[in-house]
Amino acid sequence: MKYLKSIIRNITIALFASTVITASAQTKTIKTVDGKTLSIETLNTAIKKAIKQHNLPGLSVTIINKNQLAYHQVFGVANADTKEPLNKQSMFEGASLSKPIFAYFVMKMVENDVIELDKPLHEYLPHPGISPESLEDYKSITARMVLAHQTGFPNHANNQPIKLAFKPGTDFMYSGEAYQYLAAVIGIKLGVGFKEGLNQLFQKEVTQPLNMPHTTFIWDDYLENHKVFGHDNQGHPTQNKPGEGRWSGKTFNAFSSVHSEAAEFSKFIIAMLKKEGLSEQSFTEMLKLQTEFKDDNLMKLETGQVGWGLGFAQKPTKNGMMHLHTGNNHDFQAYAMFVPEQEYGLVLFTNCGSMLPFIKEISKTLGEQF
User: Fold this and answer.
1) Which of 93, 74, 94 is nearest to 84 (CA)?
2) How far apart are CA 288 and CA 314, in angstroms?
3) What is the pLDDT of residues 57-106, one digit of tens each?
4) What's the average model confidence in pLDDT over 324-336?
5) Distance, CA of 230 to CA of 138 (rounded, Å)
6) In this structure, are residues 337 and 345 in contact, taking their beta carbons and an 8 Å threshold?
7) Is the pTM of this model over 0.85?
8) Region for 152 from its dihedrals, namely left if φ exceeds 0, alpha if ψ lies in -120 to 50, beta otherwise
9) What angle, rounded to 10 degrees, do the helices at 280-287 and 262-274 form?
10) How far apart are CA 183 and CA 291, in angstroms?
């Protein structure tokens, strides 16, 4: 009996010590992108104020300092009607945050000699939906042009023949359609298709090495149990149940179907900051300016962005080059950015369409975030 009491006492002491160590190890401050020190209490207050001001039902947010996760918090609800609270396992639609992490996957495929960055894609897989007047020009399209939005493809073809807007490689046009063509090229080249097989390969090459176990491009059981509800402009949940009556597909949509949450997706952003998982040459290609916007480009005029690398938009700031991408499925929006010179990053997932005003508001506290 004395031996049992001794064991229990030792376990209790060990647990108490562990709790104290964990608590003391948690950061009480973070650094803003400007390098200023900010208390967690001040940050939480600013976020809550911005959430209330812009009517966000729910938010998953992380901040990266010194290339490490410094802050992770969730706020609000998974469903505005039921008031079910978010938790740190809650999953969101990443929308076009799919594109930069797919670009990272593509660079893996280049390194693995599956495709070449500058070899015409039609030599791997002819595209069946090109308009006759664009058949010759489209044959010059490469993976580099796809990732840097230089193909001339529309954003979405909507089952119509694709007529190129310009000669590939000569201008910028944002295109999810081109990303999906590249996904098909990889999937068909490897014989895995562009559904579960391609997602399994993506997870093997990207999410498993980066310890992102639940990030996926296709529907699975974890999403069934953890995905939150999107919300319309009136703040109402967009569907009755996750997976029923809305997207619950098995197609790998390289341009839009990634699902994740802020802490997991931050591991990808940290990999970009620390240059992990790819060669130095691949990171150089991803982070350099591949497509320079013309002076009349609306994104340049409205946001100050100057162009695109392979996967991310680029914006010069006083703190260094900001690499960024938004995601917008209307009832879900997401955002990721990082500034290598500051070893800083921000990741947001929301279940509504009010993300950009929210970012503008918290930039008053965190410095320029978009």
Assistant:
1) 74
2) 9
3) 999 999 999 999 999 999 999 999 999 999 999 999 999 999 999 999 99
4) 96
5) 37
6) yes
7) yes
8) left
9) 110
10) 21
